[in-house]
Design brief:
The protein is of the alpha+beta class. It folds into two domains: 155 residues, no CATH class; 321 residues, no CATH class. 23% of the residues lie in helices and 18% in strands. Helix 2 packs antiparallel against helix 3 and helix 6 packs parallel to helix 7. The longest helix has 45 residues.
């Protein structure tokens, strides 16, 4: 009897079945839990990817324009119907994400630490119309949706239900920079210091045709910046002159923040710009660097006494024997701009002197007019391009000037002369509204960027100072036309110079 009991005690056959029977509930439970975690993770991924996509698409419109929030909301509405999620409570098939509910709020800033919650009274924009320009970030929240677990969550929750909520939040921001620009800014000529509500952004003025064919003149800014002024920007250059000639600031500027700079001789600005007219003054004499090449049309109304490093306006006559692109009339000094060209007769003298024929009239189309109105008289830039396209650059004006528009002074490869060399990109700033920041050289947000056409070389006020173009002698204004602006209201030629970056921050 004892032996039988002893054998039974030692017999281990079938013990695996007992262990399996004990482990089956645990194995099933872990399997169900794994399925639940997979489903919950998939649901959260669907919601988070949707929130991320919504935030990125929305932030992509926050370009500092007055209608940025309107466009951002439109982008969100267009995208929201195309995203779906699965595995939510009661959803046996993929569900459109918009049914869960998506909310957004626009932010002007973010706390320095991701651990700090967004501050309603500091970061969040409440006036979405008046403060649209300040919107840099967007927070998108997907309303949490229910999730029904298969695993008995109530065991883990101490009597709780088997369901819980899953949601998602994403914060994205927009940044824009420009690299192909000279390190100077121009005050917005359409800013109204007396009645700010009447001001226009440079983009609004351009789209309305208010800039077309006007001459703008800008002088260096002192302590009271405003329309008709320009100033220098902080840059990465050792030589401002080099930056003016090459058309670069040596760095990329953020669309959201610029800082003005002092302590540089403005003669360097003008000497650098003048190489585009085949003028190599001061230390630039006999230059052959391709970065200093001239434009392919350098007609400037030079006298017979002018040469490769000296520029005098032809004053013989009347009429003079050479004529630059004509200045605008009448000219409003308070705004730093002329009236638009009113009729084709504006071009009669210029054309007869330089080309010896009657002006072609409507054959010279106003191609860069943003309104599309081809009946308006052509701008100076359009006439300049017409001369190039129709082989008029080589035409010679009468004696004694005998000026041609073809460059001859550059010591490098003249086949590299480029029509766009008389175009430069520069920042536009609301100088009246930002006077303290400009004078204090603290960060200021620009109104935008413009592509401008240089009408004529820059001279000194005192002709005796022309022998020292890089010196401190008073300058005459830089004369220019606005050809394009950045943003959706422009003609798009500045797009290649802009770098748009949208990224997730939270």
């Amino acid at each position: 009897m004892l032996g039988t009991i002893r054998e039974f005690w030692r017999d281990q056959r079938g013990i695996a079945m007992i262990l399996v029977a004990i482990m089956i509930p645990a194995l099933i439970g872990f399997s169900v839990l794994a399925v639940d975690l997979t489903r919950a993770n998939a649901l959260h991924n669907d919601l988070q990817k949707g929130a991320d996509a919504f935030a990125l698409a929305t932030a992509g419109e926050l370009d500092g324009r007055s209608d940025s929030i309107t466009r951002a909301d439109r982008a969100l509405a267009n995208l929201i119907t195309g995203n779906k999620y699965q595995f939510a409570s009661g959803a046996e098939v993929a569900t459109i994400l918009s049914s869960a509910g998506v909310s957004r709020r626009y932010l002007r800033s973010l706390p320095a630490s991701d651990d700090t919650p967004i501050r309603d009274d500091v970061d969040v924009i409440t006036d979405e119309i008046g403060d649209a320009k300040s919107a840099i970030f967007v927070e998108v929240t997907v309303t949490p949706v229910g999730f029904d677990a298969i695993f008995p969550v109530s065991i883990l929750q101490g009597g709780g239900s088997g369901s819980f909520d899953v949601g998602a939040t994403a914060v994205a921001g927009f940044s824009q920079s420009i690299c192909e620009t000279v390190p100077i800014f121009m005050c917005n000529p359409f800013e109204d210091a007396v009645t700010p509500a009447n001001s226009k952004t440079i983009q609004q003025a351009f789209a309305a045709g208010d800039t077309y064919s006007r001459e703008f003149r800008i002088l260096k800014v002192d302590s009271n910046p405003g329309p008709g002024n320009f100033g220098l920007l902080d840059n990465g250059l050792n030589s401002i002159q080099d930056g003016m000639a090459r058309g670069t600031a040596g760095t990329c500027y953020s669309r959201n923040s610029l800082t003005s700079k002092t302590g540089v001789t403005f003669g360097q600005v003008n000497t650098g710009l003048n190489v585009r007219f085949d003028l190599y003054q001061g230390s630039l004499k006999n230059n052959s660097d391709l970065g200093y090449r001239p434009a392919s049309n350098v007609r400037k109304g030079a006298s017979k006494t002018s040469n490769c490093n000296k520029y005098d306006v032809a004053s013989d006559g009347p009429p003079p024997s050479a004529m630059a692109l004509p200045p605008g009339t009448p000219f409003d000094n308070a705004k730093g701009m002329s009236a638009p060209i009113s009729s084709n007769s504006f071009w009669d003298s210029y054309w007869s002197i330089n080309h010896g024929t009657a002006y072609p009239g409507s054959a010279v189309n106003s191609l860069t007019n943003p309104t599309g109105d081809l009946t308006r008289p052509a701008s100076r830039y359009d006439v300049y391009m017409y001369e190039i396209a129709n082989d008029k650059v080589k035409d010679q004006s009468p004696a004694p000037s005998k000026e041609k528009g073809t460059p001859s002074c550059f010591k490098g490869d003249l086949t590299k002369a480029d029509p766009s060399r008389r175009l430069i990109n520069l920042a536009i700033i609301d100088c009246n509204a930002n006077q303290d920041k400009l004078n204090g050289h603290t960060a200021v947000r620009p109104d935008g960027y413009a592509s401008v056409f240089l009408i004529s070389p820059v001279q000194k006020q005192n002709p005796a100072d022309e022998n020292n173009p890089e010196g401190t002698g008073a300058e005459k204004p830089i004369s220019l036309e606005i050809v394009d602006v950045d943003g959706p209201l422009g003609n798009g030629t500045l797009d290649k110079a802009l770098r748009n970056e949208v990224q997730l921050y939270r």
